Amino acid sequence: MYKKKLRKHLEGIFSSSELEQWFDPLDIRPEPEKGLLHIAFPHMFFRRRFMDHVGRIFEQALLSFEGTLRAHYGENTPDSAFAPRFEPDGAEPDRDIDNTDARLRRPGTNAARSGKNAAAESAPAEEYFLPEHYTFDNFLFNSKNELPVTTARETSELVSAGNHPRYNPFVVYGPSGSGKSHLLGAMARALQQNGCNVFYGNIMTFPALLETAPGSCPASRNACIFLDDAQRIASSSNIRDALVALMDIHLSSHKLLAFSFDRHPAGCRELGRPLLSRITSGLVVELKRPDLDIRLSYAEKRSSALKLDLNKEQLLDLANKNADIRSLDGYFSRLAAYTAVSSKNGSPAPAREAYATLTLKETSNARLTPELIIAVVAEHFSVDAGELIGKRRDGKLSQARYIAVFLCRELLRLKLVTLGNIFGKRNHTSVLYAVRSIAKRCLIDNDTNKLVEELKHTCLSRC
């Protein structure tokens, strides 16, 4: 009975298919007199996957479901065997809004299609945080970026056809907002759609591939690896050393490696000579910021997709004001939100009117900032703004923090790493979990959706 109630509670966070994979096989026995919830696993491999992928989310969900019980796991294998091995040097694991269900095995991945039991696998090589729009067809470019885009597409086609990559590793570098993540993701998706085993991630998700020694990990030997923001590897010597060994395996077996950097990798001396020499041994290409014509084409595409009906002058003004695709995305998110909460029945062109209003506000030095959003949420929940970016947590404070993170992501389109730094140095996966949690609640809970829309309106009206 207790397990059924707990499962129903978890359905607000996980899909039914995900719960069938990791929750249903558990043996759960509550012991309220000791304040414990005993959890037994089918076998040690199952326990390992549970602890690495959903353990922290489960414990947080248990806290919100039954605050008097804490999880107690079976004693058949030492807990230390499942502790994260590749935390950045000096980093402490976040225990508040932490981890994400995106690390669960998804139906449709190669391992799921093969029908293998999860116990037989070590480190899963699969899609991590790979947005649906990351495709070559959606990547807009002109002659300035023809080399990196063309070689990326050719490399994907070559490997998909079962041939050795001509350039290995494939490295793309460029400033923030130039489209590096999109290009790397397009390569990964093209290979995945052709049945290749793919890992796409960054320093927050990459350690999952290094849970065992690279030489004995079938997933790490066979997967094509796409590592975004690779310059961040410098924060952990353990990851650097493991990646050197993993690259040796891939390069000798002609398995594709692809990296993105925010600058030429030769300038990342902190990575160390062994790793740098391997990374720069392949093709290194620069992806430049998109020109005005590309930004204008993207603005037209986004306006059409969001049904905003902006005129040509407004679109050109947007393309001129925003130097990269990410800032364009942020503006369109604000514009769509403002339009949704301010349009009235019978208004002939609400998007155009909202654009004019936002333009007026932004030229009057009153800008929407994370600080403003945090202040609005703190005021609504009657908490101190400093507590939203602090470490203390309880039911009310955690909900307020989740919503503040979600609004900052929705209205400002800030990167997950940036949001993590704003909200008390939390990690990438913690922020992603908060965003997805509120997004799910908005879909299934009308009160939450109404509250979020009201707070959006308040934030936009004050800037």
How would you describe this structure to a colleague?
Helices cover 50% and strands 8% of the residues. The strands form two sheets. A five-stranded parallel sheet has the order 5-6-7-4-8, with helices on both faces. A three-stranded mixed sheet has the order 1-2-3, covered by helices on one side. Strand 1 (27-31) and strand 2 form a beta hairpin. Mean pLDDT is 76; it is low at 75-128 and 212-219. It is an alpha/beta fold and 463 residues long. It folds into four domains: 2-103, GMP Synthetase, Chain A, domain 3; 123-286, P-loop containing nucleotide triphosphate hydrolases (Rossmann fold, 3-Layer(aba) Sandwich); 292-362; 370-462, DnaA protein, C-terminal DNA-binding domain (Chromosomal Replication Initiator Protein Dnaa, Chain: A, Orthogonal Bundle), CATH 1.10.1750.10.
What's the structural blueprint in terms of helices and strands?
Elements: H1 2-10, H2 16-22, E1 27-31, E2 36-40, H3 44-53, H4 55-65, E3 70-73, H5 110-114, H6 146-160, E4 170-173, H7 180-193, E5 198-201, H8 218-222, E6 224-227, H9 237-253, E7 257-261, H10 273-279, E8 283-286, H11 292-305, H12 312-321, H13 325-342, H14 350-362, H15 370-381, H16 385-388, H17 395-412, H18 416-422, H19 428-444, H20 446-462
Parallel strand pairs: 2-3, 4-7, 4-8, 5-6, 6-7
Antiparallel strand pairs: 1-2
Helix pairs in contact: 6-7, 11-12, 11-13, 13-14, 13-20, 15-17, 15-20, 17-19, 18-19, 19-20
